[in-house]
Amino acid sequence: MGGTYSDLEAERYKWSSEEFPQETALKYTPVSDKSKFSIFRLSVRPEKVLLRLADTLCHDHPVRLHMELTAERHNGYFNPRLVRVVVEGVNTLSDLDVNALGAHTHFSYSCVSRSCNYHVSKGESFFGNFFGSVVSDMTWEVFHTYELSMKTLLRFYVNIECHKVTGLSAMFRGPFKFKVPAFVTESMIQRSTPVIQREVNGEPPKAINAFLESEFTGKQYILFQQEGKLGNSSTTQVVSGQGARVIVNTDAQFHGNGNGSKYKNCSIVMNYKAAKGTN
Q: Which one of 46, 126, 141, 241 has the fewest beta carbons within 10 angstroms of its own beta carbon?
């Protein structure tokens, strides 16, 4: 059977932790093999948004992904500070570029006939451009696609915005099941119903959560970084790829949710003390 699963059960968890008022997790489990899983966790507070993915559905290699967005308050207003992604087990980086709208990237990983895609793009907020004193002009869109078959896919979406007064916020939608080929539009998403077998008001199982938060080593890609003091700073778009602006730390490390980070020998060492679980 390799790493191919034609049917998945989806469970969505919602809770609040001491560090993050908004916590959401989505867990995929194959109907045919309950020992395998894919879990995605979204943690949100005004200064930081964390997106963590752990996928063990491939029999030959696990996949880990950690995306972090931070904002800093200056003179009473929040400003975007950093957006970075660290990945392990990703076998294809099909698109990583900076265009007129900002940074965007497309990671993909596959196992036998199964494939997944993780897409990150930076967009411009209409409200940010029109009401510049209220909403930052930076928004980030993330989606993850799981191809169930040649004709069916599962996809969830995360929209992240930096509000100058209230800070970072994120909205999770999905997962949705779509037939392919299909150009998925915002209208299609709004008309679709999430494919959820179970809703849980609480945290995911401890063992799965522990694996999601465990240390891993991967490649780091910095998609956005604001340097210098806020209020008198220069904004830079930095991605890895062709050209001079290349930042790839093959030894970048994340411990848990990444608090207490530090740089050492081109590595990011992030210390983490797990909070007590509820189950």
A: 126
Residue 130, C-beta contacts closer than 8 angstroms, at least 6 positions apart: none
Q: What is the C-alpha separation between 253 and 234, in angstroms, rounded?
A: 27
The CA-atom distances, in angstroms, between 59 and each of 4, 7, 89, 210 are 9, 16, 12, 20
Per the document, the length of the chain is 279
Q: How far apart are CA 253 and CA 108, in angstroms?
A: 21
Q: Where are the domains of the chain?
A: 8-270
Average pLDDT over residues 32-44: 91
- Contact status, residue 105 vs residue 247, Cβ threshold 8 Å: no
The Cα–Cα gap between 213 and 178 comes to 30
3-state secondary structure of 210: helix
Compute how many other C-beta atoms are within 10 angstroms of the C-beta atom of residue 169.
Answer: 15
**SS3 of 178, please?**
strand
Give the phi and the psi of residue 263 in degrees, each rounded to 5.
-95, 135
* Dist. CA 217–CA 50, nearest whole Å: 17
Q: Is 38:54 a contact under the CB 8 Å cutoff?
A: yes
Q: What percent of the chain has pLDDT over 90?
A: 32
Residue 256: what pLDDT? 47
Q: How far, CA to CA in Å, does 94 sit from each of 87, 105, 275? A: 14, 8, 37
Task: Transcribe 72-97 into DSSP letters.
Answer: EEETTEEEEEEEEEEEES--EEEEEE
Decide: 22 and 200 in contact? Cβ < 8 Å.
Answer: no
Task: Rank 35-44, 81-90, 92-101, 241-250 by mean pLDDT and report only the highest.
Answer: 35-44
For the chain, the C-alpha Rg in angstroms (whole number) is 18
At 225 the pLDDT is 83
